[in-house]
UniProtKB/TrEMBL annotation:
Catalytic machinery residues: 117, 218
Native source organism of the sequence: Corynebacterium lizhenjunii
Stated name of the protein: Class E sortase
Sample GO molecular function, one term: hydrolase activity
Transferase listed as a keyword: no
Amino acid sequence: MKKSRMSVSQVLGELLLTAGVVLLLFAFYESYWTNIESGQLQAQASEKLEEDWVNPRGRVQPQLGEAFARMYIPSFGGDYQFAIVEGTEDEDLLAGPGRYVESQMPGEKGNFAVAGHRVGKGAPFNDLGHLRTCDAIVVETRTQWITYRVLPINGEPADCLSPEQQAKLSGEYAGVVGRHITLPGDVAVINPVPGGDPAPADDGPVAASEGMITLTTCHPQFSNAERMIIHAMETEQLDKADNPRPAVLEES
C-alpha cells in the first residue's frame, strides 16, 4: 500500500492550529486563572490591612508585599476598591496595585506612584482609559481619606482644582496631563514632579509643592510595548475619625 504524504501546506496548517490552541490556552490562563489567584491574594492582603489598622504596629514604612492603603475610583462603580501593596515586582503586583518604592507615600508632597496590571492578575487598572478630567481617585489610609483629581486629558478646564493649582499647570506642572502614553523606560513619570528632576537624597526636601498620584499600566492590552500613565493632583484630605465615609465615594 502506498503511504500518503502530508504536503507542506498541511504541515503548516497543523503547526498554525497548534500555535492557535497554545495562544488560546495562554489567554485563558492570563485573563481567567490568574484573576482567581490574584483575587485570593488581594482578599488576604485586604484582610491583613484591616487587622493592621485595628492593631497598628507603629511601623511607618510597609514591608515589600505588605498592604498599607486602599484605592477607590468612584466612577468605576461602588464595588471598585483595591488594597495597595508595597513594591512593583511580579509577586507584589499579583496581589494588587503596588507602590513604586522610590515614590512618596499617599498624602505627602510629591508623587505617590502606583503600578497595576491591565489584563489578568486581577486587572485593577483595566479601565484607566475611561477616566475623565476631574474624576476622583480616593486613597484610604489608617487615619485619612485622600482625594486626587485627574488632571486635564484633552485640554478641558480643571474646575475641580483650586485657582492656585490651576495656575501651576502653566508653571511648575506645565506639561503634566491627566493621561498619556509613553515607553516603559520613561521613569520620569514617577518623579516628585512628573517629568521633572528625580527625588533628592533621603535627607533633602522633596522638590514638589503639590501631592500627586500617578497610575501606570501596560498599553495596549495584552502588550508590554508601551505604558498608559494617569496623573491626578491632591485636592482634599479628611480625617477618618470625623468622616467614616466621605461624600466623594458616592460620585459616579
